[in-house]
Amino acid sequence: MPGPKGTYDVLPGSEFGATALVREALLAPARLAGYADAEAPVFEATELFARGVGESTDVVTKEMFTFSDRGDRSLTLRPEGTVGVLRAALDAGLHKGQLPAKLRYAGPMFRAERPQSGRYRQFQQVGVEAIGLDDPALDAEVVALGFQAFAGLGLTRVRLLLTSLGDASCRPAYREQLAAFLDGLELDEDTRRRATLNPLRVLDDKRPEVQAQLAGAPLMVDALCAPCQEHFSAVRSGLDALGVAYELAPRLVRGLDYYMRTTFEFVHDGLGAQSAVGGGGRYDGLAELIGGPQVPGIGWALGVERTVLALRAEGVEPPAEPGLSVFVVPLGAPAKAYAVGLVGSLRRAGIASDLAYGDRGLKGAMKAADRSGAAYAVVVGDRDLDAGQAQLKDLREHTQVSVPLDDLVSHLEGLL
Ligand code: AMP
Description:
Layout: H1 19-32, E1 36-37, E2 43-45, H2 46-53, H3 58-62, E3 66-68, E4 74-77, H4 82-91, E5 101-110, E6 122-131, H5 136-152, E7 158-164, H6 171-183, H7 189-197, H8 208-213, H9 226-241, E8 247-248, E9 260-268, E10 276-282, H10 286-289, E11 297-303, H11 304-314, E12 326-331, H12 333-348, E13 353-355, H13 362-371, E14 376-381, H14 382-387, E15 389-394, E16 399-404, H15 408-415
Parallel strand pairs: 1-5, 7-8, 12-13, 12-14
Antiparallel strand pairs: 2-4, 3-4, 5-6, 6-11, 7-9, 9-10, 10-11, 14-15, 15-16
Helix pairs in contact: 1-5, 1-11, 5-9
The chain binds adenosine monophosphate.
């Protein structure tokens, strides 16, 4: 029986079987930069997302999994991670401590989107948030950590798109300028409605007939106030100092409403329509939107499945568990009892090992040893036990030696 629409199962050998190590690898650069683990609940009050993510976004209007609990409170499965992590940080008063508060997280997110390759209803993100300061050098650090997350996995075709969305002092005037421009275009009813809610969103319309009309649209980067201009140029200098290449993308608009100033996206050209592998930005107004104090912040979220798809597109092996080193094959009941103890000793010595359960014959057990991926098999029969010996087979070289039972663990430690 398959799982619900738009979901997938993580199992050995399945399409997204390697996600745990990919998540760890994506967050490794952040760990080196002092970001601590954070976890917020998978569900929150619906109002938190409605206010935080923004009422004009597709995420809030069309894609939330919302339900009532037994006390008739409206709850929603988190569609993204920033709002919950920020709520948790404010709740714990992290903004009153050492700043910036640096947090990293990983976990499932839920959006009722139309499923397709690279787009799921339950998907995984990793993310970082740097909360409490507005310092362009911190913006550069955060953006660079995203870039390094992909580079650390061996990806070479991730591009960084960067822009500034201005702030509360320059964006409103720009918004009006853009709205006036959009008024003069031939737009369908739906797009017009979107333009009224948030004209910036129309810039993101992928349809060629809309894009053609947008050729002369005013751009936010040309309308930045002096402090925003200065901020943006400091972010770019920071990225240059960190050796991170970026492309200016003045039409970049993200699917969440809370971004201001530094805004960015990571794209991979080998993924077809779902090319965004991650994105983020500065969200200085978000804490207030969700009912908190004025606390600035910046962060990103990276899509784990799309990262796996990007690895595949580039032919890069995802990080893998080291696997088994030793597979023990007992033949007979006394040998089985000995084998159970032996794998215990091997594991205590830090050697990944397993044994042939199910009392199979030599042939079946050796097949299991080969399939296990172990480098060595230890075969013990009852007669070996009497002689105080075991047969140690090198499964790659196809060689075999007798080793005294008392020396087995140390002998294997020496070999591995
Ligand atoms: P967002 O939170 O929308 O900024 O998304 C950040 C990243 O999460 C995107 O760049 C994608 O890589 C990933 N992502 C977003 N939505 C989905 C989805 N429905 N399925 C898979 N990945 C997604």
